[in-house]
Design brief:
Blueprint: H1 4-19, H2 54-70, H3 84-95, H4 100-110, H5 116-130, E1 137-148, H6 155-165, E2 168-172, H7 178-192, E3 210-223, E4 234-241, E5 244-253, E6 259-264, E7 268-274, E8 284-290, H8 296-300, H9 304-313, E9 315-318, E10 321-324, E11 326-333, H10 335-341, H11 354-357, E12 362-375, E13 379-392, E14 410-415, E15 422-428
Length: 434
């Protein structure tokens, strides 16, 4: 089994977080008047997200981003792990301030619903579902805006971010104190991810030209319905290549109560391991395991239709499960990746984020994402955060440095500096003549 399968195994868990619910009737961060049902708002679906919904778009983006990262030479042979919902949330708030080509590209890459009501209510409903609470697990997500205190953002943009995405704005002094501002934002992320995501914004990512930072944080901790017995965990080999193995701590459930949702095709096995829950949203980890060592079979199943068919075909039955313990920590700077996926304009001087401030002076300077996951006998702890840094475009600096190119006839003088007396004078018409 290729080493990248570890990243794929847990990718499914955060895909599940993006599709566990398609909405609810109360929107976070609104008044009772604001929380009335909205036409087009998504409703929960236990198996598949309806086409055109925020959840369906998020899942399509998840598969697209996975393929982009998996095909990037810099990640060859490496584990992958990210939260598509965290990235989608932060960029959806960015999209609300984008216009023209910039908005078209972001919307296309994220597969956002074109209908404004469906898009906004969809994100609000998903956020409400994810934050609804459950006695058996912890799951929460949060958005925030961090604005330069002297910069005049449009009130309607700030209101939209707050009402539909619960992204309330906090003013910071990016101009005079960018480092302290960076630390403030990072502390917010750490607090909302139980310190699992630290230093989201790296040193130097915030500078005096920064005008806005959009953040999302998501955190999950849950226990398996069918927990593994730590006494049964043993050291076993894990194939990372045809003739290469590593030692891992392999958990196992082989008893009569090891009943899971299970399905198989000619090329892969699918296993659904549910997390304990009360009255809240049901969560599970969906594992796609190729029957051969080649990951292609599992990666090809990531398209929305195939994944939905697999989930529909799951049948609860006894399964002898052997699954490795692992902990992953990943970090991505996403501008090159997102540009390659189809949204290059937002990162250039041609960016149009005029919906934020009414000008064409802003662009995205960075999209940073960090993720963490720990899978053990008891369950899973996972966290991720995304930061979108919006900077002021550097004004074109006119070069007033004189250029003196003596490539044509000229006069010259030799002058005594104190008195200004001309001691010699001449003209050069042809430097090659005597």
């Amino acid at each position: 089994m290729d080493r990248n399968v570890i990243g794929l195994l847990v990718l499914a868990s955060f895909i599940a977080l993006g599709s566990i619910a398609a909405g609810c009737t109360d929107m976070p961060g609104t008044t009772s008047a604001d929380s009335a049902p909205v036409e087009g708002q998504e409703t929960p679906d236990n198996r598949t997200a309806p086409d055109g919904s925020v959840a369906a778009g998020n899942n399509r983006f998840a598969a697209d981003l996975y393929r982009q990262l998996a095909g990037d030479p810099q990640y060859a042979g490496q584990n992958l792990f990210f939260s598509p919902y965290s990235i989608s949330s932060a960029l959806a708030i960015t999209y609300e301030g984008a216009r023209g080509t910039t908005a078209d590209e972001i919307g296309s890459v994220l597969h956002l619903p074109e209908n404004e009501s469906l898009r906004r209510a969809g994100f609000a409903g998903l956020d409400a579902a994810l934050n609804s609470g459950d006695a058996n697990y912890t799951l929460r997500t949060a958005n925030a805006l961090w604005a330069e205190e002297t910069y005049p953002f449009l009130p309607e943009y700030i209101e939209t971010a707050g009402r539909w995405y619960s992204a309330n704005a906090t003013n910071l002094d990016f101009v005079n104190n960018p480092e302290a501002s960076r630390q403030t934002i990072n502390r917010w992320v750490e607090e909302r991810t139980e310190d699992k995501i630290r230093d989201l914004l790296p040193a130097g990512s915030i500078n005096p030209l920064t005008r806005l930072v959009i953040t999302n944080a998501i955190y999950f901790k849950g226990t398996w319905v069918e927990q593994f017995d730590a006494n049964e965990t043993t050291e076993e080999e894990f194939r990372v290549a045809e003739n290469e193995t590593v030692q891992v701590r392999m958990m196992q459930r082989t008893d009569e109560d090891a009943v899971y949702g299970y399905a198989q095709t000619d090329t892969l096995q699918a296993l659904e391991m549910p997390y304990a829950h009360g009255n809240g949203t049901e969560l599970s980890m969906l594992v796609l395991l190729p029957k051969e060592d080649n990951l292609t079979a599992a990666e090809e199943a990531l398209d929305a239709e195939t994944l939905a068919e697999l989930r529909e075909s799951l049948v609860r039955e006894r399964v002898r499960v052997f699954f490795p313990k692992f902990t992953l920590e990943t970090e991505y700077s996403l501008p090159p990746t997102l540009a390659a996926m189809g949204m290059p304009t937002a990162f250039t001087g041609e960016a149009d984020l005029s919906g934020m401030d009414g000008t064409d002076m802003l662009f995205i300077s960075e999209v940073v994402h960090k993720a963490f996951v720990d899978v053990n006998e008891e369950g899973t702890e996972a966290a991720a955060a995304t930061g979108v840094v919006v900077n002021l475009k550097s004004a074109p600096v006119e070069d007033f440095t004189p250029v003196f190119r003596a490539d044509h006839p000229f006069v010259f003088l030799i002058v005594e500096e104190d008195s200004g007396t001309i001691l010699f004078m001449g003209r050069v018409a042809n430097p090659e003549s005597p």
